[in-house]
């Protein structure tokens, strides 16, 4: 479980293509401190498992399903990535509940800079739009953010200087893909309400 508070901006140092998978080597001095085989680290919002750890680098295998459903397949040597270790029990929840399970990808559509922040417009897949609401939470490339405006096929976010300087969202340009994870609570509520709506019809059929 993560909170969407990025700990550091890491870098892809090697990519090995495997049958139906890829193996990434990533550099991240902060997240590798104390890391061991089997630990989880979120990479651009995707929960990956540490395979090997040496110095300030670690390797992680990314299966085809993850490559197809996220933007990790577009990463190459030199790509910068957002890194976060799982939260611990009793720690402050600085962002919101993030699972590291990407629901889909969007694209940076537009950036509007101002003196103290930047408004970024992101495209939104149609099947995810119902989970995104104004002032709700969304995870973009592993960063917990508040939705400013929600449309049928887009949403906007407001990025402060710290986010621009310390995450990939400061360097992403229009057309670049981003990983999206919607609020898991919204998905559970939808499922529960959907099941409840089916109860009367089921009882009537008895």
Automatic annotation (TrEMBL):
Pfam families: Lum_binding. It catalyses: 2 6,7-dimethyl-8-(1-D-ribityl)lumazine + H(+) = 5-amino-6-(D-ribitylamino)uracil + riboflavin. Pathway: Cofactor biosynthesis; riboflavin biosynthesis; riboflavin from 2-hydroxy-3-oxobutyl phosphate and 5-amino-6-(D-ribitylamino)uracil: step 2/2. InterPro entries: ATP_synth_asu-like_sf, Lumazine-bd, Lumazine-bd_dom, Riboflavin_synthase-like_b-brl. Gene3D superfamilies: 2.40.30.20. Signal peptide: none annotated. Keywords: Repeat, Riboflavin biosynthesis, Transferase. Its EC number is 2.5.1.9. Catalyzes the dismutation of two molecules of 6,7-dimethyl-8-ribityllumazine, resulting in the formation of riboflavin and 5-amino-6-(D-ribitylamino)uracil. NCBIfam families: PRK09289.1, PRK13020.1, ribE. This is Riboflavin synthase. It comes from Streptomyces atriruber.
């Amino acid at each position: 479980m993560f909170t969407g508070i990025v700990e550091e901006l890491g870098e892809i140092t090697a990519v090995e293509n495997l049958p139906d998978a890829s193996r990434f080597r990533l550099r991240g001095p902060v997240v590798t401190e104390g890391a061991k085989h089997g630990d989880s680290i979120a990479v651009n919002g995707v929960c990956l498992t540490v395979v090997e750890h040496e110095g300030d680098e670690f390797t992680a295998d990314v299966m085809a399903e993850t490559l197809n459903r996220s933007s990790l397949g577009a990463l190459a040597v030199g790509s910068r990535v957002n890194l976060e270790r799982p939260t611990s029990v009793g720690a402050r929840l600085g962002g919101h509940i993030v699972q590291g399970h990407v629901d889909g990808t969007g694209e940076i559509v537009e950036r509007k800079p101002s003196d103290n922040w930047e408004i970024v417009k992101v495209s939104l897949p149609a099947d995810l739009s119902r989970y995104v609401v104004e002032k709700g939470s969304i995870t973009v490339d592993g960063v917990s953010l508040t939705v400013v405006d929600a449309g049928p096929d887009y949403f906007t976010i407001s990025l402060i200087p710290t986010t621009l300087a310390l995450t990939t969202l400061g360097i992403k340009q229009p057309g670049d893909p981003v990983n999206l994870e919607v609020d898991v609570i919204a998905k559970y509520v939808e499922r529960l309400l959907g099941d409840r709506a089916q109860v009367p019809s089921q009882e009537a059929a008895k």
